[in-house]
Amino acid sequence: EISLEELIHGIASGEVTGMGAVGNAAAVSPVTNLVIKKDSNLYLMFLRTFRSMERDGRVTPGPFNTVNIQLGDGNPSPSTLEMKKLLTGMQTGIIPAPEGWLKKVPRRL
Question: Can you tell me the distance from the alpha carbon of 87 to that of 52, in angstroms, rounded to the nearest whole number?
Answer without folding.
Answer: 36
